[in-house]
Structure formats: C-alpha cells, structure tokens
Amino acid sequence: MSTTSAWTSVPHDPPSQRDWATRARYAPSDFITLLWRERFLMLGIFLVIASVGIAFSMTLKKNYTAESSLFVRLGQEYVYEPRAGDAGRGAVPDVDQVIQSEAEILGSGELRERVIRKLGFAEVFPSQATKYAAATPEGKRKLISLGRDSIAKHLKIETAPDNSIIRLSYQNEAPDRAEKVLNTLLEEYLTYRRRLLIGGDDRVLQRQKDIFEQKLQETDTSYQSFLTTNDIGDFSAQKATLTQLQTQVEQQKYSIEAQLQDRTARLAAVESELARTPAETVLYRDADTTAAAKLNQLKLDREGLLSRYRSDASPVRDIDAQIAQLEKGMAAGRTSGEGARRSGPNPIWQTLQTSRNDLIAEVAALRVSEATAGQQVADVNQRLLRLAELEPQFNQLSRDRDVLSSNVRDFTVKEQQDEAQRRMSSESSDNIRIVQRAVAPSQGKSLQKPILALTILFAAFTAACAGLVRMFLRPGLQTPASAARTLNLPVLASAGYKP
C-alpha cells in the first residue's frame, strides 16, 4: 500500500482551510482495501462478542411446553337472576363475553396462588425450595407473589373471536412439572370459577328474608291490634255482610212501607163501607104457600075424580074451574101474603167490623215494623260509616301485610332456588369441558440457535462498524485513488506503506 499524505499536506495553511482541502473522498473499492487493513481489529472484536454470545447461549436450557384446551359455552351462572323484582330476568351475555370472562379467571393471580399452595412451593419452584423453607412468613408471602408472576410469565392463554375454545400452554424446564402445573391449574379453575360465579354460602337472601319476616311480624301485630281494638273479626267479610244486610233491611223497610200503605188504604175503605152498612138486618122471611098447597090439592082431587068420571063430567069441570081460577089468582098475586120474618145483626156489618179490627191491628203492627226497620237501617248505615272511616287504615295495614308476605314468599323461593343452583353448580360444570388435558411434552425448545445466529450477526456488525470508525479516524489520504479524487490531481507515484 502507498500514501500521498506527505505530498498533499500544506503546513503553512490555516487548520480549518487545511482540513477542508484534504477531506478524503472514497470509492467502494477503497473500503475493501481500508477494511482489510483493519482486519486484526475487526477480528478481535468479532471473536470477543461471539465468544460472549456463545457462552451465554450455552447456559440456556430447554423449555418444555405443556398444552391443553377448554370448551366453554353459556351456563346457568351467566343467566341474570335479579335479587328482587323481575326486571331484566333471563338476560345473557354473548359467547365472546363469556370466553373473555373465563380467560380472565384463568389468568387471575388468585388462581395461580391456589396452584402454588396446592402443589407446594418446592414442587413448583424446586430451585428456591431451600430459600422458601428458611424464609419468614413475610418472606414466604413475597416468594409466593414472585411465583405467581413467574407462572404468569410462562402461562399463555389464547382465545379467538366466535370460537368457544380456550387454549392454554405452560412452559417449564421440566416436562413433568409443566404437565402437573397446567393440570392443577385446570382443576383449581373449575373449583375457583364455581365459587367466584355462583358464590359460596351467600346469606344475603337469608338476611333480607329475616328482615322482611321481622317487619311482617310487626305488621301482623299492628293488624291484630287494629281488629281487636275496633271489635272486628274479619273486616272484608263484615263489610260484605253489612252491605248485604243493608240491602235486605232497606228492601224489608220498603216492603213494610208498601204493606202499611195498602193496609191503611184498605182500612179507610172498610171504615167507609162500614159507615154505610146497617148494624141489623132481616135474617130470614117465611113464604105463604097456602094457595100453592090448595092448587096442588085440587089437582090431586081432579086426578081422583078422573078415576071415577069422565073428563067432561060435571064434577071434573067444576074442579077444573077451581084450578083455573086459583092459578089465575096466583098469577095475579092475589093469593100471596107475608109469612113469618126474623131480624138480627147484619153479617156484612160484622164482616166489615172484623176486617176493620184486623186492619187496625195490622196497621199498628206495620207501623212498629216500619220504625224497627228504620232503626235497623240507621244502625247498619252507622256501622258501615264506621267501617268506611276505618277502611283506609285497614287497607294500609293489609297492603303492608300482603306486600311483606309476598316478599317473604318470593325471597324464600329465591333462597331455595339459589341454594339448589349452588348445590348443582358445585357438583358439576356442564358448560365447561376439558377438551384436552396437559401431557408431559417429549420435545423441548431452546433459544440457543437463535441467540447464536443473532450473536454472530451482531459481532460481525460491530466489528465492521469498528473497522469503519478506525478507517475514518486515520489521518491523511489512505490510497492514491482517494488522493486523486480528493485533490483532483493525478498521482504520479506512491511510496510503500509503513506503520
């Protein structure tokens, strides 16, 4: 190699002007020549960085990943059941919301801590078993907290939209430990989610029911005191009875008034007729039957004469003349006369007098009945008015009592349903199915090769950068071609390179 730095330097020029005049210009071919000159520096840097990267990659161990999956669908615990009322009853989330909720439960720190406590800290983290055994209670809590974070770092939970499958994977240095931790996580998840979603022995409904029962007892006491104070057995029945009795009494009163008017009118008519009727009258009169008897006797005598004489005989004609004359007299009424006659009390007057007495008695009785019915109507109306005054208070007590009874009944039903739901949910999780349990992986993965490749690339890049920096920091013009381009002058000769 040769240099022209001695020929191109102008010592008497100012420094700034000299630096500007000798600023080197390089071509791609110059870089290869100049970098080859720095090959020992670049090789040293490359070897140092590569050695450190290789040493670090050799310390990395293989990690084994255990995998499992869950099938999640909508369950009873996601159906909204209001504590009170029916607003929103039966509302359910969509499948994606359910999946995200279950994924959050799977990734919760409480669940990871339950796994550590069930398996034991030494089983999950054998490298820190001695430290954990010698630690104080506060130190153990800190180690468990760090263990929760470590599990979270190696636990992977994957979900996809419109997909009911949740995929889980756990990475550990030991395949058996990875399998055990992931399967324990699934078992604890099934138990923890039931306690979280369904709840344990939740006594909220019981306490609320006890409150309503106490209020109901107080209301019942007030209700019974109200009935006793006002001498009421059954308010509704008594009101209905009084209403019905009022109708009956009023109908009876109207009937009595109608009867009284009828009897009064009949009494007036009877008294008027009685005033025109005589007290005495002819009871019977005997009739005079002498002419009729004589006529009959003459007819009998004529029949007797006909048995001895002919019809034109003189005796027969004489008797026929007598009979004709008698009949003529009877027809003219000359033969009738008054017989015996008898007088006495008039029966019609007596009947009218009896009717009058009966009607007077009936009118008097009806007047008494009318007064009694009027008093009964007044009493029934008074009692109804009293019940009407008490009805608002009774309705308030009855309404409170009915509402509290309904609340106690509803909360009793809800409490039993909630208890049954907790029992059924604690025994099974039908909406969560383990599609695949974790098994110990047979092949592990390591970052040795990727780290080796990255280390070599980084070492080569660093060495090249160091060579370029060293090349640009050398003074003067390093090659004849660079000197010719920089000074825009031909280079006629060059001396050999000497360090």
Automatic annotation (TrEMBL):
Membrane topology recorded in Swiss-Prot or TrEMBL: Multi-pass membrane protein
Entries under Pfam families matching the protein: Wzz
InterPro entries: Bact_polysacc_biosynth/exp, LPS_length_determ_N
Location in or out of the cell: Cell membrane
GO cellular component, one term: plasma membrane
Swiss-Prot/TrEMBL keywords: Cell membrane, Membrane, Transmembrane, Transmembrane helix
Domain Polysaccharide chain length determinant N-terminal: 33-119
Segments passing through the bilayer: 40-60, 451-473
PANTHER family noted in UniProt: CAPSULAR EXOPOLYSACCHARIDE FAMILY, TYROSINE-PROTEIN KINASE
Name of this chain's protein: Lipopolysaccharide biosynthesis protein
Native organism: Caulobacter henricii
Taxon lineage: Bacteria, Pseudomonadati, Pseudomonadota, Alphaproteobacteria, Caulobacterales
